[in-house]
Design goal:
The protein has about 600 residues and is an all-alpha fold. The protein has helices spanning about 1-10, 10-25, 50-65, 90-110, 115-140, 140-145, 150-160, 170-195, 200-210, 210-225, 230-255, 265-280, 285-310, 320-340, 400-405, 410-415, 420-425, 435, 440-455, 465-490, 495-505, 510-520, 530-550, 555-565, 570-575, and strands spanning about 355-360, 375, 385-390. The chain has a 3-stranded mixed sheet.
């Protein structure tokens, strides 16, 4: 009865979250799991999962699916409830900050006696997920400082629905219309909330809003044949309303621009808070800079060795047509799966769907700049094929797309198999629900970067030596990102300086360099995740080899890494090897 009374006192939205959480907790042993990941609800130590942690986590992550901001990155994308719209009104922002504090209190009140190591890992990652709310809404204070935040909550929110590669359903069509209709309110909230707008973030927002009428009209026209006829008129009205709202927002931003601040740095203390409480990286900024510098030196020399080695080989060519590239990518993905098994690198479950490339459809093309162009599926869509959207091959393509037009495999490794799609599909099948829902870029991007060089060392590119140069170029970029990320965060770089630095030293095309610098400026800590995550994986695996000697099993540890690939590497090292030297500070 007391539970019922407490439930009745909750706001309607909170009741829904509690009910969804209960359903999630009951269903956490879904039959859609990948074959190799299906187990009982036991932790790694063989004990039952902690029900208090799991129950709180289910409630938190369902709440987060409604309140987490849309972003251009593919890793943190979440499934939204039907009819969801972004709500970052002042009232909603206050409620988010209040809920964050309440979740933290409830987490710390959970008894910690007789915990297994796996319980402690789950506790730390759940706390990390909660602290990320504070990071986004208080430390970074994106709703007050970043005008592009609201472009992401409008165009970005629609973009997430347009990315889904399966045929358009009536429900998804209705969801798109609902979000388009919400643009006007989101823009009004932006005008109220943006009390400390940053000029350089405004420039990014205005760039994303350039020619917005033309872009959204093209999207609208391309969606019409995909939508039920009865929704055509409503889509047209919603699109026009959305266009007017964003045009109005652009005018307002231009008017306010002269009085905006140029200071966007989070500062050393803010960055340390991120490392200690969210990323759970056991290094100081000085140590990170040194690691990045050493890897930069290594990558420059390795690339030089490879180029000298390939001097007598013909220059790489691009695919003649997109059809040729699509066909090659399909063959390459299948060959990579076979290569992984034949070389005893890791287990590829038979039930794992494929990662394919397709041409960008007309309804997505106008907004292709809004984020990473792939559909990695989701926890509820594991039986669906994952998709990467690609452009026609051309020498004018930006950095990453140009590499795929030469050889699809480097990006298939990072984004698909055995990188992001492979790892996330396995993690979505983890028997521990917390580890399905928690996302850590340091682990996710570290794995994506690690598998590139790992597969090079195993000989995947021996048939096409020039493609090894692509991998070494990627290594230069990821190493340099460490310095760029930290110097942006502590105020030693502005976006233009960071872009020029990347453009000259990697080298990168100017468009990619500026895009990277801007994204990292208002997402501090994200750019270090590739290089630092990879180094942590190398340390983890090398420690395992030294400790286990002849009993070291690369396939087995890779399978563990992929299944738990959402978890910070320092915590996996503790759980798998019992080494505590990198985790003590996280309990302080």
């Amino acid at each position: 009865m007391e539970i019922l009374l407490q439930f009745n006192k909750l706001k309607f939205r909170s009741r829904i979250i509690v009910l969804l959480s209960f359903i999630f907790f009951v269903q956490c042993g879904s039959d859609d799991s990948i074959d190799s990941a299906k187990t009982k609800l036991l932790n790694k130590d063989g004990g039952q999962l902690n029900e208090d942690l799991q129950s709180l986590a289910a409630e938190f992550f369902n709440w987060r699916s409604e309140t987490q901001p849309a972003a251009g990155d593919d890793i943190p994308r979440v499934e939204r409830p039907d009819s969801w719209v972004p709500d970052y009104s002042q009232e909603a922002l206050l409620e988010i900050k209040t809920e964050y504090k309440e979740f933290i209190i409830r987490l710390e009140e959970i008894p910690k006696q007789n915990w297994h190591v796996s319980d402690s890992v789950d506790y730390l990652i759940l706390r990390s997920a909660m602290e990320r709310v504070n990071w986004e809404f208080t430390v970074l204070n994106a709703p007050s400082r970043n005008p592009d935040f609201y472009v992401q909550q409008t165009l970005g929110a629609v973009f997430e629905l347009l990315l889904i590669s399966t045929p358009m359903t009536e429900q998804r069509a209705a969801n798109i219309i609902t979000i388009l209709k919400s643009f006007s309110q989101t823009v009004e909230d932006a005008k109220t909330n943006l009390t400390l707008p940053v000029a350089s973030f405004t420039d990014i927002a205005l760039g994303n809003l350039e020619n917005i009428r033309k872009k959204l009209e093209a999207t609208n026209d391309a969606l019409m044949p995909l939508f039920p006829e009865r929704l055509h008129e409503e889509l047209g009205h919603a699109s026009e309303s959305a266009i007017k709202a964003l045009e109005d927002y652009a005018i307002w931003l231009k008017m306010k621009h002269p009085e905006m601040t140029n200071d966007f740095s989070v500062g050393r203390e803010g960055y340390k808070y991120f490392l200690d409480n969210i990323a759970l990286i056991p290094y100081s900024t000085e140590e990170l800079l040194k690691q990045g510098e050493l890897e930069w030196n290594r990558s420059v020399l390795l690339e030089e060795f490879e180029q000298l080695r390939n001097t007598k080989l013909p220059e790489p060519t691009l695919f003649a047509t997109i059809e040729e590239q699509l066909s090659r990518a399909k063959i390459d993905e299948e060959n990579i799966r076979t290569f992984l098994e034949e070389n005893d690198i890791l287990t590829v479950p038979e039930s794992l769907s494929h990662y394919i490339s397709v041409k960008i459809p007309p309804h997505l093309a106008p907004l292709a700049y809004m984020g990473v162009m792939d559909d990695l599926t989701s926890e509820s869509r594991l039986k669906e094929t994952a998709v990467r959207y690609i452009h026609d091959p051309s020498p004018d393509l930006p950095y990453f797309n140009l590499s795929s037009a030469q050889d699809p495999r480097p990006l298939i490794l990072h984004e698909g198999i055995p990188g992001h799609y492979f790892q996330m599909a396995l993690s979505w099948s983890n028997s521990d629900p917390i580890r399905r829902r928690f996302i850590d870029s340091g682990a996710n991007e570290g794995i994506g970067f690690y598998v590139e060089e790992m597969m090079l060392q195993f000989g995947l590119f021996d048939d096409k030596p020039r493609s090894r140069e692509i991998i070494y170029s990627f290594m230069r970029l990821r190493a340099l990102r460490v310095e760029v990320d930290i110097r942006l965060a502590v105020g030693e770089f502005d976006i233009e300086e960071a872009g020029e630095y990347l453009e000259k030293k990697v080298p990168l095309d100017k468009e990619t360099a500026i895009d990277e610098a801007g994204f990292f400026a208002y997402n501090p800590g994200q750019a270090i995740s590739y290089q630092i995550g990879k180094l942590q994986i190398i340390k983890f695996l090398s420690d395992a080899k030294i400790m286990k000697g002849d009993k070291f099993d690369l396939r087995k540890i890779h399978d563990y890494l992929m299944l738990n690939g959402n978890v910070p590497i320092a915590l996996l090292r503790w759980e798998y090897l019992g080494l505590r030297d990198e985790i003590e500070q996280f309990f302080n």
